[in-house]
Amino acid sequence: LSGEPGRYRAKILVKPRFVTDECTRCGLCTGVCPMVAPDEYNAGLSTRKAIYQPFTQAVPGIYVIDPDICLNKPPDNIVCNRCTEVCEPRSIVFTMTPRIVERGVSSIIVATGYELEGGEALKKLGYGSHPNVLTSLEFERLVNSAGPTMGEIIKPADRGHPRKLLLVSCVGSRNEKYNSYCSKVCCEYLLKQAIYAKNHGVEDVTLLYMNDIRTYGKLFDNLYRKVVEEGVRIIHGRPQIIGYNNGGIRVRLEDTRTGKTDIEEFDMVVLAPALKPPSDLRKLSVLLGMQLDKYGFVSTNPANPVATSQPGIFAIGAATGPRDITESVVMAWAATTQAALMTKPTKSLEESVTELAVGEEVRVGVFVCHCGSNIAGVADVNELVRFSQGLPNVVHVESIPFACSKPGLERFGQVIREKGLNRVVIAACSPATHLPIFRDVARKVGLNPYLVTMVNIRNLDTWVHPDRRVATEKAKDMIKMGVAEALRLRPVKQLRIPIINRALIIGCGPAGLAAATALAESGVETIVVERGDKCGGLVAQSLIKALPEGETAYEALNNLIKRALRAGVRVIFNTTVREVSGFAGNFHVVLTNNEELDVGAIIVTAGANPITTKELGLDDSRVMSIYDALTGPPKELGNDVVILDLCGKPYCQSVMLNLAIRYVKEGRNVYVVYRDMMTVGQLEDIYREARRSGVYFLRIPRDGSWSTHVTINGDSMIVNDVELGGPVTVRFTSVLVNTPMKPNTEDISKILKLAKYDDGHFVEAHVKLGPVDTMTPGVFIAGAARSDVGLGEAITEGFAAAGKALALLSTGQIVKDSLIPRVDPNKCVGCMMCVKACPFNAIEGKPGHVIKINEAACQGCGACVGECPYGALDMDWPSDDAILAQVEAALAEGAEGKVVMFTCAYCSYWAADNAGIFKMQYPPYARIIRLQCSSRLSWKHVKRAFELGAAGVFVTGCRLGDCHYITANYNTVRRFENWKKRLKNIGIREDRFQLRLFGAPDVTDLVETMREAERVVKTVTKEEIEQTKQKTKQLR
């Protein structure tokens, strides 16, 4: 690396992949490769070949060759040609060599991840000596449904199922011999793994915590309570592996709470190793000129945790210390935002395309892909071509060896133009991965991309049904369904809605200042509304005297305020928001000072305030909160100070410990009464310093109430200490309470219609992947309004939220495919059912009046269409006609031997895709119809399937809470129960109408659903089906 911030020159070593971009991911090469190695992605629990795909959802998904185990030693010594012989696209090139690429870059982001502790720390606990002693990462792959055992917990030693399991925390963490810091995520994921184990049938699960149970994050306590409810045994203590007995692992367990030591035998032991910096991070730090901390992680600014010691170089995630997914995503957005401030903006050029005229005559083209032998090696492609030629309105059919290859795509576009095709069906692989590719080609040759559809005869057919006749017949059905859909496809136009290049920040604390600064420096007009009379929030008012960031906190706040003012941020003090209307890109805001604003994005950083001691029932003149002690004139505390930790969160505890250390240095006796210490990551240093400085710690039970275990008797406090095993009496002159924080979200949540958790924090769009997004597009959250955070975290979240807002505002307009429901005013009665069903508040109206859909806010899930009982709503894609046409085509022949299965385009369809990738065979009775969301499903679709004689109808979708459209699939569940009652009332067996919710990795759930479809087909009688057909026709 050379140059300076904003003008770096980077030389990048690109190692050869030995596979070109022409790779179609057919997998034939892997099948013939003779060389085997441990699969890194599955933590060595399975094997891979020398040529392999790193993992199924890798981007790009192209195969690579591992030269260390390949028989060939390119480029000179080529002794094996098995893979090149079967590769029809000729994408394997052994003459590739390493190359240096030089690029000019304005900034650099380091995201190098972590390594796991190995060596002695694990060996002492039997790792490497017994195959049934696993690391937590290995166990994670075992319980994952896309892992080496498809989610089945199997003992590596004998392939049996464990009955008794021990999970051990802090292996190499919080230990000065190995790593004195806390690895942060272990306590939580061990709780998760304990639940997984119970759900997978492990009878006896024990969690061994060396010390605290650090459920430090948002909603993490819920998981702890779930573990307790599941009957998992939790022990605090230390383990020692003392031997093995007939495959069992004998462990001496020391329970530090009871003082007892027992010897138990477990079938499997799982160790949670410390998270360490990557071994080559030090070398990288020298190349980039950035400093590392004493543990070897990238050293960052405490008040801006993504900024390294080198300007223009940022670090995120576990490169900076142990981090969880939420923190890593927030840091990624924060670093991207700050990096973008150093980059000159560029304008992208749009291609000009003349759109083909779509006349009244429907001309369908069908392309059947061979995909090497993946399709053609199982199904009879020639028969599929002949069959397709006889389908309605089909004017052209051809087979292509590899439709997604460069020659295949060129041929695809050429035929559309030459044959005048205005509807296209590609019978190939997955629309989830490849439909955008074919649509893009169609768009470039002038055909509206929504006039192209795909049928997945690879993943859903030839990869799961090896029988040639079965696969061919199912493929015929699928192509017939695809053509039926194509006949009813409609062109979808793009919407372009101008965006107001102005942002509103609610709150002028650290998060708000960071967000405002980033937006203003990016050229966005930025307005901050602050209810108080100055910026800085609670930090500036009181906490700054005891922050773990020390003097850095002063500098950070002052610098942010100066930068914000210099960038032109306008701050309106003593004002709040009264009303908000509009949608993403176009909000109208009315303030309490009667000023009206039009803004494109809103970021809520409303902050929080400590709960008072009176609210906690501690009404005693000698008792005050830490915040009271830090504000106003100096308080007379006396020589004996007791601190009650009612907060239990990392940042407030670090403030508490800093204060305790200061009081000890002043000559006072300090006692901290707590449940669990949550000083995660490098904050462990503060906890260790407090203990060494002479602060006394008294621990009450985690689940015990304060009133039961802490009592005040005159000038003495009696604490029931669980570690000493009895009451401890402490004399005090004052009591400080580390009180919890209460977010200032009550009023603004009602105005913006934002959901809150029970503790008052806002509900994010996705707790892991969308932590600063809300369920309302264009509205973002950061700081204490989102979660319990410290100064550095608040600033990071502020930058992250600004990045999200910039991603919206910088486009200048909202460009989206118009997948907007159309309202038939002659049918709409203004019942408002659709308004309640919409997860995006995109529908407006009054009872008894025709509703109106906000096109900018609508995300196209179709929940409203599925809800409408009057048929007043429909979509151009997927239209009711197209869905019904697929149902009718699927059931045109042999309906009694088929189950119609509706999937969402995301989780459940991806699970079906992944089952194909893993070649998991299942019965061929289900016919899948892919919807954008399961909530798009209407009663008319279910009714029609039963009217036509389907053996069953299965509805599948995302798990609740994981829906791509936030809460849309809650509608699915509610409707399903109503429809189920309706069908039950006319005598239809409950098992013929089922709802299954599972995630993309849950391939075993998908396979089980397919087996259930077979069971339904084989148990339903012709008489039942005939009765069903007649009775459903009578239903409305």
Kindly give the count of domains: 6
Give the biggest sheet: 7 strands, mixed
Average pLDDT works out at 93
Rg of Cα set: 31 Å
Q: What name is given to the CATH topology of the largest domain?
A: FAD/NAD(P)-binding domain
- Tell me the name of the CATH homologous superfamily of the largest domain: FAD/NAD(P)-binding domain
Per DSSP, the total helix count is 31
Per CATH, the architecture of the largest domain is 3-Layer(bba) Sandwich
Beta-strand fraction estimate? 15-25%
Termini separation comes to 70 Å
Query: Which regions have little confidence, pLDDT < 50, spanning 5+ residues?
Result: none
The strand line-up of the biggest sheet is 10-16-11-12-13-14-15
Q: What's the CATH first level of the largest domain?
A: Alpha Beta
Question: Strand pairing plus helix content: what structural class?
Answer: alpha/beta
Strand tally, please?
52
Report helical residue fraction: 25-40%
General form:
globular
Oligomer: single chain
Can you describe what's shown?
With 1036 residues, this protein is an alpha/beta fold. The chain folds into six domains: 17-97, Alpha-Beta Plaits (2-Layer Sandwich); 115-276, FAD/NAD(P)-binding domain (3-Layer(bba) Sandwich); 364-469, 3-Layer(aba) Sandwich (Rossmann fold), CATH 3.40.50; 498-609 and 743-814, FAD/NAD(P)-binding domain, CATH 3.50.50.60; 612-739, 3-Layer(bba) Sandwich (FAD/NAD(P)-binding domain); 878-1034, no CATH class. The protein has 31 helices and 52 strands. The strands form 17 sheets. Strands 10-16-11-12-13-14-15 form a seven-stranded mixed sheet. Strands 28-27-26-32-43 form a five-stranded parallel sheet, with helices on one face. A five-stranded parallel sheet has the order 34-41-35-36-37. Strand 39 (716-721) and strand 40 (726-731) form a beta hairpin. The radius of gyration is 31 Å and the shape is globular. The relative contact order is 0.08.
